[in-house]
Write a structure and sequence with these properties.
The chain is mainly α. The chain contains 21 helices and seven strands. Strands 4-3-5-7-6 form a five-stranded mixed β-sheet. The chain has a two-stranded antiparallel sheet with strand order 1-2. Strand 6 and strand 7 form a beta hairpin. Helix 11 packs across helix 12.
Length: about 550
């Protein structure tokens, strides 16, 4: 990479990360008096999970628990990304949400760099590689033009962040780490195939080893894409790629321990298994097609041109070691639309990474088109494409910024926490014992693990087993027609040590305060009660 290319990449990565940070800046500025911005703007329930993992690592735990349930569980799971984030928070003595965004920005820039490096395997011209960066970093689909482009069936560029690179940079360091490891493993697998050198297979295996720990689902994508690619190479070249397959097996063997450990957790940990089996089905295929929009159309053109170049190269030199360097991109782009329909619980996670090969093929198609227009119109063509293809990204940010400015987020949680709630969180962190768990209103419960490091009875729609039933039991506690014995029975069933109320409706019954519960904290509307005996019904 020349200095000029590096400067181009650095400028664009800073621009992309800054643009992705605008809603957070707006949220910080719009925080009303007496409230603090949580630092999350979209899917903040999932953000709360990642913060809870970081909190546990910051507290010195290597193995982490699912703190969104107080069901018995052994601490067996660990994630190297969140261990790094928690360690950074502990060393720097800064809030975990600051670490979240520091890593989001750094990993976002790292992703742009590794995509550029990966693309250099397929794009020979520096002008094409420069064109790629704003496209992969900003583009999306046509969801911004469609009515009702919302979950779970609308155009995915308006609601599924892992499908779009920019939205991943905007929202999630875990997605970014997964993408970096995916692209890195693909990069070294390609080098192993082209050079026949085992060292590249070893590097690919190490990337996959980390990927299996950090974001295991993505190993499925890499494995399916690469296996399909080897099959297509065998068919098209009419020769079995023995060395490439053996090197691939080497990489897979190195990666196996982390994947095997996840299967072990799945088999022995019922809480982990319930979370992995929570259903997030893929939408209809048209939602993905619309989610990539113009990028997909030009990628199809790029794929046709790539296949055409392969036939021409074969006619010129049938002994070429790599007849079509773009074949992997074509295979990935096809298989990538099939994988999300594998019959597993969390299907739609498997779309992650598809945006990258589509963008590289899109650049090939766009370059072909620009070569056929007058030179004075080439820049206008590029700017028009960028403006059109980033429409959904802009609308996504604008929607979130508008929501945050009025105290809302998708999917409905408030982006702010009151000073009273923060004080309550601090009390629980300082006074609750490690074995204690907390029963609280849904929104408050969602953030208890991140702020306190303690478990809750329920808190997250997919992390908490039978979440719907738990919420129903909580709501029943506010039913004035429920007799006291039935009310306190629900308290006992929660197996909690502390009870939090933020509205008079949820305050404990007077009978409970005569012996089984006592108020231990009060600030504003927030009250905390210590459950002194959940085994004795009165």
């Amino acid at each position: 990479m020349s200095k000029l290319e590096l400067k181009w990449v650095l400028i664009w990565m800073i621009v992309i990360v800054l643009l992705s940070s605008l809603p957070y800046i707006i949220g910080l500025a719009a925080a009303p008096h007496g409230y603090q911005f949580l630092g999350l703007t979209h899917n903040i329930d999932d953000g709360a999970v990642y913060l809870s993992w970081t909190r546990q690592a910051a507290d010195g735990h290597f193995f982490i628990k699912n703190l969104f349930t107080n069901e018995p569980q052994a601490a067996r799971q660990f994630n190297l990304l969140f261990l790094a984030m928690g360690g950074f928070a502990r060393i720097m003595s800064i809030p975990v949400i600051w670490v979240y965004h520091i890593f989001r920005c750094l990993l976002g820039m790292g992703l742009i760099l590794i995509v550029y490096k990966f693309a250099s395997l397929f794009l020979d011209k520096p002008a094409q590689r420069r064109l790629l960066i704003p496209i992969v970093g900003l583009s999306s689909g046509i969801g911004w033009l469609l009515p009702n482009a919302v979950a779970p069936t609308g155009s995915v560029d308006m609601w599924q962040p892992e499908a779009i690179t920019f939205l991943s940079i905007y929202l999630n360091p875990l997605f970014l780490a997964g993408l970096i490891l995916m692209i890195g493993s693909m990069y070294f697998l390609v080098l192993a195939q082209r050079t026949g050198q085992p060292v590249h297979a070893v590097y690919a295996g190490l990337f996959l080893l980390l990927l299996g720990n950090v974001h295991t689902y993505d190993v499925i994508t890499v494995g399916c894409v690469w296996a399909a690619y080897m099959l297509v190479v065998w068919i098209t070249e009419r020769t079995f790629p023995t060395r490439a397959v053996l090197l691939s097996i080497l990489a897979a063997a190195i990666a196996m321990p982390s994947v095997a450990y996840q299967f072990y957790l799945y088999s022995v940990d019922s809480v982990f298994r319930a979370r992995a089996n929570s259903l997030t089905p893929s939408p209809v295929i048209w939602s993905y097609f619309a989610g990539y929009g113009l990028v997909l159309l030009l990628a199809i053109l790029g794929a046709v041109l790539s296949m055409k170049s392969e036939r021409q190269a074969t006619e010129v030199n049938s002994k070429s070691q790599i007849r079509n360097p773009g074949l992997l991109l074509v295979v990935w782009s096809v298989v990538g639309f099939i994988i999300p329909y594998i019959p597993i619980g969390q299907q739609r996670k498997l779309i992650m990474g598809l945006h990258v090969p589509l963008c590289i093929l899109c650049v090939i198609g766009l370059s072909w088109l620009s070569a056929r227009v007058p030179s004075e119109l080439k820049r206008a063509l590029f700017l028009l494409f960028i403006a059109f293809s980033m429409g959904s990204s802009v609308k996504f940010l604008a929607n979130d910024a508008n929501q945050v400015s009025i105290g809302l987020t998708a999917p409905g949680y408030a982006p702010y926490i009151s000073d009273s709630e923060l004080a309550a969180m601090l009390y629980l962190r300082n006074h609750a014992k490690p074995e204690d768990s907390i029963l609280a209103p849904p929104t408050f419960a969602l953030f208890i693990p991140a702020f306190t490091g303690h478990a809750v009875n329920y808190g997250h729609w997919s992390e908490t087993p039978n979440y719907g039933d738990a919420v129903t039991r909580w709501r029943a506690l506010g039913d004035t027609d429920l007799n006291y014995n039935a009310w306190f029975s629900l308290i006992c069933e929660s197996k909690s040590s502390y009870y939090v109320s933020d509205e008079r409706q949820w305050d404990p019954r007077a009978e409970a305060l005569r012996g089984n519960m006592s108020e231990c904290f009060r600030d504003g509307a927030v009250r905390i009660y210590h459950i002194m005996s959940s085994s004795t019904r009165r």
